[in-house]
Design a protein that fits this description.
Blueprint (H helix, E strand, L loop, with lengths): L4 E6 L6 H16 L3 E6 L23 H10 L4 E4 H6 L11 E4 L1 H10 L2 E4 L1
Parallel strand pairs: 1-2, 1-5, 2-3, 3-4
Helix pairs in contact: 1-2
Length: about 120
């Protein structure tokens, strides 16, 4: 049996720490339920893939997004980062955290097709 997957498109970082945190909270919940989280960072969300980016997106009253993101990566899941979104922000591949990788439109669509549901934050 194929393992279930649920996807999250994260479009926020420091610009809206709460919306940056929620998908990572849900991803950790999915892991606890033996559901594979698929995370894609787009728009301002790509900044979470930079050193210090998740720490800068802390939301009052919520678990630190840096800890939640670290748990996803420690569990062996990788995080896709939108290539055009990186380019428009002057971010190079060698700046990304370990476990984060560049994905283009085809990879995003393929990931979406493999998931039970895909949510955007």
């Amino acid at each position: 049996m194929t393992r279930k997957k649920v996807g999250f498109v994260v479009t926020h970082a420091q610009d809206d720490p709460e919306l940056a945190t929620i998908p990572f909270m849900l991803a950790n919940g999915a892991m606890a339920m033996d559901v594979e989280p698929v995370l894609i960072l787009q728009g301002e969300g790509v900044r979470l893939a930079l050193p210090g980016g998740a720490e800068a997106a802390a939301a009052d009253g919520l678990a630190p997004v840096a800890d939640l993101m670290a748990a996803v990566l420690a569990a062996g899941h990788r995080i896709m980062v939108c290539s055009p979104c990186m380019t428009t922000r002057g971010i190079a591949e060698d700046q990304l955290l370990d476990g984060c990788f560049i994905g283009g439109a085809g990879q995003v669509v393929q990931s979406m097709l493999e998931c039970e549901n895909f949510l955007r934050y």
